[in-house]
Amino acid sequence: MPPQDILSDSGQDGSPLRSGWTTGACATAATKAACLALFGQGFPDPVTITLPRGETPSFALALREQGEGWARAGVVKDAGDDPDVTHGATIIATLRRGAAGSGLVFRAGPGVGTITKPGLPLPVGEPAINPVPRRLMSAEVVAISGRLGQPADIEIEISVPGGEKLAQATWNPRLGILGGLSILGTTGVVVPYSCSAWIHSIQRGIDVARATGLDHVVGCVGNTSERAALALTGLSVEAVIDMGDFVGGMLKYLRRHPVQRLTIAGGFAKLSKLAGGAMDLHSKRSQVDLPQLAEMVRQAGGTAAQLRAVLAANTALEVLEMAQQAGLPLGDVVAAKARLVALDVLGDVPVQVAVLAFDRKGMLVGRA
After folding, report:
1. N or C: which end of the chain has fewer CB within 10 A?
2. Could you tell me which of 25, 6, 28 has the C-alpha nearest to residue 17?
3. What pLDDT is stored for residue 57 in this prediction?
């Protein structure tokens, strides 16, 4: 079954965006095919699985191999129209018969990472195959074993050729997942440009920071603010929470799972949105409010003529440059207001908050 179209968003030509399948769904399909072959039933192609919400997608096999006591199948991941780093990767499951009574055992093959830090949903030392994909794979193997009267004493090794290199473009190294990718997915479906995956990564980053004893994290909008904030604070890269535009998602999770200190770092325009109360800083979901910015210019000591200039401006950068030329501490006012908004979201949780505002070159233009 091909991925379904997602009608809630569209591509540049107006066509619906296609959803895709998670690495967990692909690993489950490969596991089912390899299990059937291991038990003498041949490789089904395509192979159909059942996802947590009841969908029954079918996957073509890109690899099928078999030997004495083992079988291997592979599925090429189709992430649909999502810009997923694992799109086009081959997810391979190698199944081997285990010792009597050993049950199901998961292994990390080449290109799949291993957990090395606490704070993730799996213990240190385990392969980075998340709980839901494990349940899906286990259910398929147990069902096949039961139907064929075979013991479910099986070793399931998942591998991804090239996965170690692909993982460098993910959060895995910072989270302490070393050696490759994670096998992920809660629904089995990848929604194009979904914010849920990003927020999930934010939450896991906070979990790992807490579990490893970090008492100060820095939530960064992008690469420029990350580099500038690390240089300014002296923090290590492990302290970075790549919040992107999802400052609200980060703050709400910190409200339930606090750390001692939080620094929010971002560009002037993005932080002016936060100062105005926006929790999602993406240009599609929030805009720079020029009347609010004019009020901040007034609080920074701006004249009536300067306020009129702000209201006629095209961009926040234009306003910042005007304020800088006039010697107005607009960046500090924006940072202070953004800090108050963040504190309001955190409520009575005892988190010390600082805000750093940068220009596009990474120069500090405001702090609170």
Report:
1. N
2. 6
3. 95
Q: How far apart are alpha carbons 123 and 115 in whole angstroms?
A: 7
Strand ordering across the sheet containing 240-242: 240-242, 216-220, 261-267, 352-358, 364-367
What digits encode the pLDDT tens for the residues 168-226?
988 888 888 999 999 988 888 877 666 777 888 899 999 999 999 999 999 999 888 99
Q: Cβ atoms within 10 A of the Cβ of 212, count? A: 14
Instruction: Give the residue carrying structure tokens 């720079």.
Output: 288
Q: How many Å apart are CA 15 and CA 180, to the nearest integer?
A: 34
Q: Does residue 328 register a pLDDT over 80?
A: yes
Which domains does the chain possess?
5-190 (3.30.2110.10), 195-367 (no CATH)
What is the average per-residue pLDDT within 278-287? 81
In one letter, which amino acid is 198?
W
Q: What is the largest CA-CA distance in the chain?
A: 84
Query: How far is 127 from 107, CA to CA, in rounded Å?
Result: 6
Rounded Cα gap, residues 184 and 122, in angstroms: 12
Cis peptide preceding 46, ω within 30 of 0 = yes
The reply to whether the predicted model has a pTM over 0.90 is no
**C-alpha 269: how far from its chain's center?**
23
